[in-house]
Amino acid sequence: MAIILGIDPGSRITGYGVVRQQGRQLIYLGSGCIRTQVDDLPTRLQRIYAGIIEIITQYQPDSFAVEQVFMAKNADSALKLGQARGVAILAAVNNQLPVFEYAARQVKQSVVGTGAAEKKQVQHMVCSVLKLSSHPQADAADALAIAITHCHFNQNLVRMGDPRLLLAKGRLR
């Protein structure tokens, strides 16, 4: 049994989703968004870091899964996204969590079955897989999809003896 924290990074809204993997069964533990609600980037980054630390403290995850940065049309937006992603990863590493990264297309393929899936399709499948009665907010649904993707890949990582999982083995419940 393992608890996975999925993160959909953003400089204004960072989605998070937490699931427990028990064999092949996935259990929803929580999700939501860290909303920075300020204009200056350093304060937004601090709030993202603090929010993720709070989530890690509350849920005690075994693994941290985050979406990889994609190429954005706007370089400034891509840089801010990269910085938000960086502080999220720092929060995980500072809490000795192994970090796993997944491309957006990989997440969509894993959860929906096609790498070109729309956000609404991802939300629908997240609800279906986790047996949720209502749709989580889009950023939280994306974070849950990232956590689900990690669960799907988790079995292969264990079989292959991935060293990041071996570091966490003592924490797996």
Structural class comes to alpha/beta
Named CATH architecture = 2-Layer Sandwich
Number of domains: 1
Name the helix and strand elements from N-terminus to C-terminus, one letter apiece.
EEEHEHEHHHH
Whole-number mean pLDDT: 88
How are strands sequenced across the largest beta sheet?
Answer: 3-2-1-4-5
CATH class: Alpha Beta
Please give the share of residues in helix. 40-55%
Distance between the termini: 5 Å
CATH superfamily: Ribonuclease H-like superfamily/Ribonuclease H
Specify the biggest β-sheet.
5 strands, mixed
What would you report as the Rg, rounded to the nearest angstrom? 15 Å
- How many alpha or pi helices? 6
Task: Return residue spans where pLDDT drops below 50 for at least 5 consecutive residues.
Answer: 166-173
User: Any idea what the shape is?
Assistant: globular
* Percent in strands: 15-25%
CATH topology title: Nucleotidyltransferase, domain 5
Number of separate strands: 5
Question: How would you describe this protein?
Answer:
Keywords: Cytoplasm, DNA damage, DNA recombination, DNA repair, DNA-binding, Endonuclease, Hydrolase, Magnesium, Metal-binding, Nuclease. There is one protein chain. By secondary structure, the protein is α/β, with parallel strands linked by helices. It has a single domain (2-167), classed as Nucleotidyltransferase, domain 5 (2-Layer Sandwich), CATH 3.30.420.10. The chain is 51% helix and 21% strand. The protein has helices at residues 41-59, 75-94, 104-111, 119-130, 138-160, 163-168; strands at residues 2-8, 13-22, 25-35, 63-67, 99-102. Strands 3-2-1-4-5 form a 5-stranded mixed sheet. Strand 2 and strand 3 form a beta hairpin. Helix 4 (119-130) crosses helix 5 (138-160). The longest helix has 23 residues, at 138-160. Residues 166-173 have low confidence and may be disordered.
